[in-house]
Amino acid sequence: MVLPAWFVDTSSGTGVVYSVPAHAPYDYQGLVDLQKNPELLDGYNVSAEAVKKILPISIISVEGYGDYPAKEVCEKLGVTSQRDKSKLDEATRTIYKAEFYGGVLKDNCQKFAGIRINEIKDEVKNWLSSKGFATKFYEPTTKKLRCRCGGEVVIRLLKGQWFLDYGNPAWKDVARRALEKVEIHPEKYRTLFEHTLSWVHARPCARKRGLGTKLPWAKDWVIESLADSTIYMSFYTIANTLNKNKIEAEKQSNKFFDYVFLGLGEPDKVAKETGIPKELLEEMRTEYCYWYPNDHRHTAITHITNHLTFFLFNHAAIFPEEKWPKKITLNEHVIAEGAKMSKSRGNVIPLVEIPRKYSADLFRAYSAGSADLDTVMDWREKDVLAFRRRINRIWELVEEASHAKTEEDTPKTIADRWLLSRFNSALRDAINHMENHRVRDYTQTLMFRLINDINYYQQRTIKTNLPLLKHVVKRLLLALQPVIPHLSEEGWERLGGKGYASLAAFPEPDESKIDPGVESSEKLVQDTLDDIRQIQEVTGISKPKKITIFLSPKWKHLLYLETKKNIGADRKKLVEKLMANLEIRKHGKEAIKLINEILAKPHTLPETMVPPEEQKKVFQDATPFLLKETNAETIKVVDAESSEHPKARQANPTKPGILLE
Predict the structure, then answer these.
(1) What is the dotted CATH code of the domain comprising 25-130?
(2) Could you tell me which CATH number the domain at 339-514 has?
(3) Which of 46, 143, 231, 320 lies 20 to 30 angstroms, CA to CA, from 40?
């Protein structure tokens, strides 16, 4: 008996499915709907009385359920109709999981009785096929798939179809070795490669129509693109020579490729057999050996289950091991304003509009700086504007630096030393990010962190050191050349750079200019300014007559330094060691309290402790800057040891005491 049902996907297979109402929630509810509402049968020439007599047949025993698990779950979830999709999906997941892992076939399953569900699938499938009751049916793993022309994608098994047998065990073993050797970024996707290698089987390698190369041994077939495009990069190494010398395709025989790609045969003999001059053969062999192996293949993660896996299979099958791929990097797809891009939503940005609406450099900067390889890039207009402002700011710095008559990296002030240190440490970090494929961190370090530092430097100093700024900006342009190549070239020329920026040597960080001490000192100034601003906000003192900054006494510096050196040591021994120092012991309970505070939050300690004399020098140098930023009339920097004021007692090496009057 064939019954109507509205949950059946008629585009899948024949559109007819067998019904198991005892164990399938959709089937059960579909039967109940027809029994309760016989008018649904109108027009189908099916007897309502016959439908009412249908009883589910139980074939699986599962612990915790009776004879009709589907009925129990549907009633428990309150399913009222076969159109109640969310509840029926939940019911289906619940039942299928319980039956797959705990179900056993009942006696009415005859020869299969007593066998667990999770052990029987292949056996039943093979038995049905052997009896002629079943055949293979192929369909896309993605439902409602459509091609670029808009037509529906169906799978058809063609008579005489040629396949690449990726299921061959020996070939799989070699492909697994290739996978083990290749570097993958992000590494988390390696498991998807391994999974694909395990299930991939026969893959059609030819088709009957369309443009393409004829299959050599069956001219009525055309080679399918994924069958040979997986090694096209090897052909790129010699394509220029073939085209320049107009070497006909007929001369590019198996002997030709065996020599050029595999080094098989003698060049004299190959030249004679192919008609290609020996010197050209040797030139192409040299070119191929120079460029191969493929050092780096980059594409989207959706290609793992097809192109990239075949890429590994085919290289492992054809080329010697030293020519196997070295590295694969992958990226996620692009969405816009948090939503998937689609024409119906109107949020698709045609690439042809990018240069006009945004500029190529802005597009590149946002693409590089807004997402890591393993995260989805979300194109958000407000964030794009932030990158536009950064690019504009870089050009402002180019214009400003262009007024410098000379270029030098010799610091004249503490602020100069700080900028040089920050620039070189940022460059060092950016290079490390790029070498580890953290392109977002690389871009953010140079376009945001470093630009923020330059902005602070210009606020901090009385007068910008233009020759130093020129030195920094020129190297920043070179470092950003991969991200914003057009602006980099323009800026490089504007600042008197020789030749093209793209051909200039990539800047190397000058480790001798990286000064953790000066960076920690300036961080102390920045943190103190933040504290003063908070006090101003709380007290309402917007224009203080006087600000006193109390610098920590020397004994606290000694205590902090020794505690920092001994983080992780036994607390009792540490206290005994510190208290053995006469200067610290004088302060008894206060010293113990400080030790406990430091040990409770060791992560708050700076990497480099700033000595007392350096702190005083930095704050005195920063006084004009602090006056300007706080609107104070005067600022006095005082050693806490020389004052009896309560604020002086609060001063410690990482947080000076502050008094506003």
Answers:
(1) 3.90.740.10
(2) 1.10.730.10
(3) 143
Mean pLDDT of the chain: 91
Distance from C-alpha of 400 to C-alpha of 397, rounded to nearest angstrom = 5
What are the sequence ranges of the domains in the chain? 25-130, 164-331, 339-514, 517-660
Give the confidence band of 558 by pLDDT, cuts at 50, 70, 90: confident
Question: 415 is written with which tokens?
Answer: 């602020």
pLDDT (0 to 100) of residue 226: 78
Q: Are 328 and 359 in contact (CB under 8 A)?
A: no
- Encoded tokens for 573: 């021994």
Q: pLDDT at residue 157 above 80? A: no
Would you call 119 exposed, middle or buried from its count of C-beta atoms within 10 A (0-12, 13-18, 19+)? exposed
Each residue of 385-405: b (16+ CB within 10 Å) or e?
Answer: eebbebbeebeebbeebeebe
Q: Left if phi > 0, otherwise alpha if psi is -120 to 50, otherwise beta: which for 503?
A: alpha
Q: Please name the residues in contact with 115: beta carbons below 8 A apart, sequence gap of 6 or more.
A: 104, 105, 123
Residues 446, 430 contacting (CB under 8 angstroms): yes
Q: Are 270 and 281 in contact (CB under 8 A)?
A: yes
Least confident segment among 65-79, 119-133, 447-461: 119-133
- Token pair belonging to 14: 């024949």
> What SS3 string covers 317-376?
HHCCHHHCCCEEEEECCEEECCEECCCCCCCCCCHHHHHHHCCHHHHHHHHHHCCCCCCC
CATH of range 164-331; options 3.40.50.620, 3.40.30.10, 3.30.360.10, 3.40.50.1820: 3.40.50.620
Report the C-alpha dihedral over residues 332, 337, 339, 345, rounded to 10 degrees: -120
Of 527, 518, 521, 523, whose CA–CA distance to 421 is shortest?
518
Q: Tell me which long-range contacts 171-174 makes (C-beta under 8 A, separation of at least 24).
A: 171/313, 171/316, 171/317, 172/197, 174/316, 174/317
**Are 606 and 652 in contact, with CB atoms under 8 Å apart?**
no
Tokens of 517: 């001490």
Token pair 């540490």 is found at 574
Per the CB < 8 A criterion, the answer to whether 309 and 196 are in contact is: yes
